[in-house]
């Protein structure tokens, strides 16, 4: 099997799901005081605005040897480079600039793993490029397929003994091939034994696609996706509660990564994708508010009794309608789901670094 196949399947899946994803954005607000979500930081780094900064981008993506064609926007001819020039400015403090040496030195001997769908892959790629720009040593690389859609790729920096790993699994919970089609087991999570050995794990899942969903012994065709998402996340949350030693393993969850296929969300009702977007939304407000899936995620995170940090990137990413590959990627489809590297995921990693190295 090729590592790329799962990714393409995912892109198609995400595009098919667009009609219901458009329903996913709603108004409303949930008061939240999740354990660990901002109290280890001096300020809420997730609140702020995008500012032009001529010293950006943080690295030249053409010099990054690990960049996949799905995210290599400059390599595939994106003409306007303005999207590389924005720095996230939290309203109450400054976000430290990413420094690969400090990152690897602070995490010496540790393993950090991104577990989730292709958006996890996106963030992992950005982290590899960020590290490469200040620590150009060649990592040891191993790839390990588990089955058709699940695989693990491990980059280890020998001088620091740090492993930066991606564990690609679309749903966190299990998916198995059965006679009737792919069945998603919302109440089962087999791969956790590998995850809980890590020092730091960043989970993420949202771009769902499947044929059948199984809960207990019942197979349901086409249950409410938001309800399925809640059930799947709850299985994961129970696993954290019962299985993960958070003294040893620091657990983070990446907030919902937004898509830009519905211009009505950002007051451009004519736009049906991100193709013409060259500017972020300046200022602190995304017109349509937060997506419903984030409220589901926050609800489930509240049921976890152990410290779990929400890497709350949803809102700051919503403002970046300009930061997707659109058609500038290796498969020439319109992609307003993933993000260019260099680009927005570098900011996610600066936030991650601020959390795990503090
Ligand atoms: C990643 O690779 C390093 C170096 O080979 C190894 O020590 C570590 O166990 C690997 N991690 C996983 C999760 O396979
Ligand atoms: C993008 O802009 C071009 C030229 O201004 C226009 O023809 C096209 O319809 C726009 N596309 C979208 C999706 O808005
Ligand atoms: C995440 O960010 C959103 C938007 O800024 C905010 O409304 C929400 O309360 C935050 N969630 C947590 C758990 O801090």
From TrEMBL:
InterPro entries found in the cross-reference section: TBL, TBL_C, TBL_N
GO cellular component, one term: membrane
A Pfam family hit: PMR5N
Protein's UniProt keywords contain Signal: yes
Signal peptide interval: 1-24
Keyword annotations from UniProtKB, A to Z: Membrane, Signal, Signal-anchor, Transmembrane, Transmembrane helix
Trichome birefringence-like N-terminal domain ranges (all copies): 42-94
Trichome birefringence-like C-terminal domain mapped to chain residues: 95-354
Top-level taxon of origin: Eukaryota
Protein localization: Membrane
Annotated membrane topology: Single-pass membrane protein
Family assignment from sequence similarity: Belongs to the PC-esterase family. TBL subfamily.
Record protein name field: Trichome birefringence-like N-terminal domain-containing protein
